[in-house]
Amino acid sequence: MGTVFSFTVRDPTAATGPALRRIVQRLHRIDEVFSTYRPTSDISRLGRGELTLAQCDPDVAEVLESCREVAIETDGWFTDHPGGRLDPSGWVKGWAVEEASRHLRAAGSTWHSVGGGGDVQTCGGPWRIGIADPVRPGGLAAVVTGHDLAVATSGVAERGAHILDPHTDRPVTGMLSVTLIGRCLARTDAWTTAAFAMGSARALDWAEQLPGTEALAVLEDGTRCWTSGFPQHLAPAPPAATGPAQWSLPGTG
After folding, report:
1. Radius of gyration of the chain (CA)
2. pLDDT tens digits, residue range 170-185?
3. Residue 217 is inside which H or E element, if any?
4. Which of 70, 113, 224, 232 can bridge 190 by disulfide, Cβ–Cβ 3.0-4.6 Å?
5. Spatial CA neighbour of 114 closest among 4, 253, 213, 25
6. Which DSSP category does 55 fall into?
7. Which residues of the chain have a pLDDT value below 50?
C-alpha cells in the first residue's frame, strides 16, 4: 500500500511471534488485493474492467460496501473513487491496521499498538501519541494520551495537496492537517479523510457531532482549532512517562 506498518507489543508471550508472522502474511495479502500501486492487484484490475466484483477476492466486496456506508455517513465527502479512479485506500489502510490489532488481541495481547501510514490503533495502555506539526517538520502539534485509542491524521505535510474535494476533484485548501481520535481505526481514518476534504469551514462542526470522536485541525496560517472534548485527551506538559510513545503523521489518508 505504499506505506510502512509497525508493531509495539508490551505484553509478549509465546503466542506473539507466530501471531505477528500470520498478521504480516495477511497484510501482504491485503496489499496484493488492494494496492493501487500494483497493476495486477484485484482492485486495479477491477478498476480497469478486467475483473468483475464476483471474480475478486471476497474482501473486495466487503471493503466497497464499507466505503459506501462511510460515503453515506459523510454526505459524500468520503469516496472510493477519488479523481474518478477506483481507490478504496482511504478505508483499507485503517481497516488493515485495525484487523492486525484484532488478531493480536485474539493471540492474548491486551497492551499493544499497531501503526500504518502514520495512523495508530492502540489496545490497553496508557499510551502517548504524538501528532505531527505540519508547520514545524519534526515538531509536535499536540501529544494525546489514553487507553484503546485510534488516532488518524490527514494532511499535506508528507505528500502535498493529494486529498481531493470529491465534489469538484480539486485539491483541498484551507487546512494543513486534521486529526481525529476515536476507538476503531477503520472508521476514524476514513472520517479523517472526509473531514479534511470538507475543509476548515465544515470539518470541526461535523466532527463535533461524531459519537466518541474528537478532532484537532491545523489551518494554513498555523492556527490550531479543536472540538470541545479534544483537551481531555491531551497529555500533561511535559508529557508524563506513563507509557510508550507513538506518532500520528499526515500519511496516505
Report:
1. 18
2. 888 889 999 999 999 9
3. strand 214-219
4. 70
5. 4
6. G
7. 239-245, 250-253
How many Cβ atoms sit within 10 Å of the Cβ of residue 45?
A: 16
151 closest CA partner among 54, 57, 230:
230
- Intra-chain end-to-end CA distance of the chain, in Å: 11
Distance (Å, whole) CA 189 – CA 166: 17
One-letter identity of residue 248:
S
Cell output for 128:
502517548
Q: Walk across the sheet containing 245-248 and list its strands.
A: 140-146, 127-132, 245-248
Q: What angle do CA 88, 95, 151 make, to 5 degrees?
A: 110
Q: CA triplet 139, 143, 149: central angle to 5 degrees?
A: 130
Residue from 149, 143, 154 nearest 197 by CA: 154
pTM to 2 decimal places: 0.91
Cβ atoms 177, 157 nearer than 8 A? yes
- Joined grid coordinates for residue 199: 475543509
Q: Which residue in the block uniquely carries the three cell numbers 471474480?
A: 55
pLDDT value of position 157: 64
Tell me how far apart the alpha carbons of residues 187 and 3 are, in angstroms, rounded to a whole number: 19
Cα–Cα distance measured from residue 232 to residue 3, given in angstroms and rounded to the nearest whole number: 31
Quick one: angle between helices 89-106 and 185-198, nearest 10?
Answer: 160
- Measuring CA to CA, which residue among 26, 23, 64 is closest to residue 43? 64
With residue 246 as reference, give the H or E element that holds it: strand 245-248
Cα maximum dimension of the chain: 55
Packing angle between helix 58-73 and helix 89-106, nearest 10 degrees? 110
